[in-house]
Amino acid sequence: MKTRTANLYLALLITMFALYVSAGYTQAQSPNATGWVQLGTLPPSTYDVAMDGSASPTLYALGLNGLSTSADVGKTWKVCDPEARYMRLAPPPVSGMGAPSTLYVTGWRGPRSSTDNCTTWQTIPTQDILPAAANVRLVTAHPLNPRILFAGMDGLGGLYRSTNGGTGWQSASNGLPSGAWVTAIATHPIHPERVFIGVRYVTRDHPSAYVFESTDTGLSWRSASLGLRVLPSNDARITGLAWSGDTLFAATSADGLYSYSEQTKTWIQAKLPPRDQGPAPTPTPNADGIAPRPLGIKSLTSGAAGALLINTPRGVFLTHDKAATWASFGPDGVVGNLGAIATDPISGRALVIADSHVWGYNIPINVAAKPPVKSATPRPQASPSAVAQFDLTPPPDTQDMEP
User: Fold this and answer.
1) Which secondary-structure segment (H or E) carries 9?
2) HSE on the CB side for 112, CA within 13 Å?
3) Is 129 left (phi over 0), alpha (psi -120 to 50) or beta?
4) What is the DSSP letter of 52?
5) Fewer beta carbons below 10 Å: N end or C end of the chain?
6) pLDDT for 402 beyond 70
C-alpha cells in the first residue's frame, strides 16, 4: 500500500512538473500573452531606452530633457546629462565579462563616456575631428576591443576612428561618399576586422549604395549594397544592422528588411510579418491594383541567441528563425502604442516603451544557437597613405538632429 501511494505521489509530481515546463515553454514562445513586467514609468518625451545588466541593473531613458537614469527598474529617475541627444551602451568585451559597460553620449559639448552608470563622465577629446565636436552624431566601441572607437558625423557626414580610446582620431571615410551620415554599425561576429555600416544621405545627388563594408577595421570602405533596393526619398536610410547567427540583416526606413548572403555577397528581401498581423495591418492594394510600399522599419535590434526585433508602424515583431516566422511582441492592451525597443545582451531582457511606461521581457536564450565569437581582439592597422578628405560644402538642413 505504501509503495502504491508513493508511486501515485511520484506520478503526480511528474505530471505537475510536466505542466510547469509546458507552461514555461508556452510563455517563452508566446511573449504577447504572458511574461511581461512593467518596470516603471518614463521621463516625459522619452524616445530611446537602454538597460545595463553588467553589474547593478540600470535603466537609461533618452528624451527631450536629456539622459535620465534609474537604479530601481524605473520607479524613480534622475537626469544625469541634460544635453545628451544620442546614447550608445557598449557591453564589456566577451573576454571581460563582469567588467562594467561603457555608456557613450553625444551632445552640443561633444562626446562623453561613463563607466559608472552615468555618475561621472569623461570627455572624449575631439581636437582631431572636423568641423567640431558638436557634429559627432554617434560614438560606439568595437565589441572586442574597447580602445577602437568610431565616431559618425552629421552635417558633413563621414566617419572617424580612434585606436587609443578616443585620445586621438583619424578620418575613416576612405571610400564613403560625401554627405553620408552613418546611421547603423555592426561588426562581423567571427571576423572582427570586418565592419558594416548603414548610411543616410543628406544631399540630393548620391549613389544608390546604402551599406558599406570595411575589411580593415574601418580604414577603407567599399559598397556592399548589391541587391539592396532602397527607393530615393527625403528620408531613405538604413535604420538598423544586426546579426542573427551567421546572417546579417538590414532594416530600411521605407523599403522593408533585407538579409545578406556571405556566399554571393548580395542582399535579398527578407520575409516580413503578414499584412494582417499586428494591431495596424498594412492597407490592401487600391482600386488600380497598386500594392502598398514595403513595410518601413523604425529600428532593428538583436537579442539573445539570434532573436531579432523590428519596430514598425504596425507594431513590434519578434523572430527566432531568421525572419522565417514572426510573432507580435508587446504587453497585452498596449501593443498599438509601442515606441522604442532595446535589448540587453547580458541579461537577455528586451525593453519596449508603451504608454509612457517601460516594459521588460526575458527572451529565452536556448531557442537558437549563437555563432562562435573570435576571442582575439583586432589589432589596429596602419593608416593608408591617402585618406579621403571631407567635402566642405555644407549639405542642406544641417540642423536635422533626429535621433
Assistant:
1) helix 2-29
2) 20
3) beta
4) E
5) N
6) no
